[in-house]
Amino acid sequence: MLTIVIFLPLAVAAALPAVPRRAVPWTWIAVTLAETALAAWMWAAHGTGAGISYETDVRWIPSVRAGYHVGVDGLSLPLITLTAVLFAACAVYSLRQTHRVRAFAMLFLFLEAVCLGLFAALDLLLFFVFFDLSIVGMYFVILLWGHGDRSRSALKFFLYTFLGSLVLLLGFIGLYLGADPHTFDMVDLTRSPPLHGGLAGLTLLAVGIGLGIKTPVVPFHTWLPPAHTDAPAAGSAILAGVMLKMGTYGLVRIAMPMLPDAWRRYALVFLIAGLVGVLYGALVALAQDDVKRLVAYTSVNHMGYIVLALGAAGYASGDAGARRLAVTGAVTQMVSHGLVTGALFLLCGVLHDRAGSYDLRRFGGIARGAPVFAGLIAVAAFASLGLPGLSGFIAEFQIFAGTIGSGTAAAAVTGALAVLGILITAALFLRVLHRAVLGPPGELTGRVTDVRRPELAALVPLLLLSLLIGVAPRGLLDTIEPLSAAVVALVGR
User: Fold this and answer.
1) How far is residue 188's CA from residue 282's CA, in Å, rounded to a whole number?
2) Which end is more exposed in the chain, N or C (fewer Cβ atoms within 10 Å of the end residue's Cβ)?
3) At CA 72, angle to CA 66 and CA 77, rounded to 5?
4) Cα–Cα distance measured from residue 392 to residue 3, given in angstroms and rounded to the nearest whole number
């Protein structure tokens, strides 16, 4: 079943050249909706238990003990479902796409397959293959369908993230060589951590840099704003909503359980990196007049919360319950950020589609002519800043409670300082609402018409899911919590 979920989009992409042009968008939508249904069915069948479901382990490169090993658990299931939902939303949103529709759909189906494969991979070499292929796919999305200085942005994105993948590969080779017998299998490496002492620290440095560039962690974030600004709306939604999670997912899946000794020793580094990301991302976003760059920098801010929480979970001397809460909050934040920021980038796309600009100074009073659009952007903004009743609040509350309550002074201080990030985020989103949505009319306001049906059909489910998690989070949290307890136990060995 899991293999079908991973490779069905790829199979359909290969068949799309034979599909009549008018049927291409509907075929794309049908496949993504089927993927969403299959992911939801797997989640329901897995339930809230611990352990791995839908596992397949087939030898791939026997000489290095690398295999096609895939499976899902409480960490990968929410992210696989998020991936399916976001790709379905992008397919519906792109229904009015007119430029190279067939190639656009094929590339997004390819990207969906590699993203799903990465979140299901239980072999380091397989993880790396999917990781690298995602970079190639997004490079072509920005280069061929972007706007502005798209060639430069695509090249910067590729070079930065490809360099990160090479450093990550060095870390994976270190884990492989440290294992006895040598293996790339994640389950075996988690069961018996292969490295300790200085070698473990060097390997964590390589893995941390490789995944940190993808996350992105400050100061490895500079590829992100231009890539988002010049990417098409659907590309930005996938880049922020799905591909940034590959970095933080790798920290939870690989770095923490496979290098527990090094993670404990350098937990303070991750705490500080997370705090810097939270405050720097929020402050720089506050200074932006380009709404898409603003949303891009809020991603730096939100991913900083995740790194902060994972750093707090590294203190083995801290309260175990609080550390579990921090990990649960980090995974919840991955899901929440994907839904909310994906919706924000699609809303930015609506603005650019109508007016050809992201400049906040040229808009004002949008609510008068486009009330539904104004309402959607208000809900997405409040979800992003963590308003109670929406998913952002559930995630951030757990992160702060787990970080501050972990029982260590460093975690408590950094967690308390990170609360300032919420205040700054509130200020920047209220500034957007006051200036663009409720302010006096701007020179481009007259061009902004309300959302069309495909746009509405793409946006509403994302925000409804954020509302559902905010009001009734138990279904998500019950799935994540066994995984959080396992990760905290592995780090504390």
Assistant:
1) 40
2) C
3) 140
4) 32
The pTM assigned to this predicted structure is: 0.96
Structure tokens at 380: 């997405």
Torsion region of 365: left, alpha or beta (phi above 0 gives left; psi -120 to 50 gives alpha): left
When divided into structural domains, the chain yields a total of: 1
Range of the domain at 145: 1-492
d(CA 292, CA 348): 6
- Looking at residue 319, its pLDDT comes to 83
The pair of structure tokens assigned to 7 is 């490779």
Q: In whole angstroms, what separates CA 60 from the centre of its chain?
A: 28
**Token pair belonging to 190:** 């988690």
Could you say which residues of the chain have pLDDT below 50? none
Q: Cβ contacts of residue 44 below 8 Å, gap of 6+?
A: none
Tokens at 185, concatenated: 């299998």
pLDDT given at position 387: 92
Could you report the per-residue pLDDT of 13-58, keeping only the tens digit for each? 999 999 999 999 999 999 999 999 999 999 999 988 888 999 999 9
What tens digit of pLDDT does each residue of 55-84 get?
999 999 988 889 999 999 999 999 999 999
Q: What is the DSSP letter of 122?
A: -
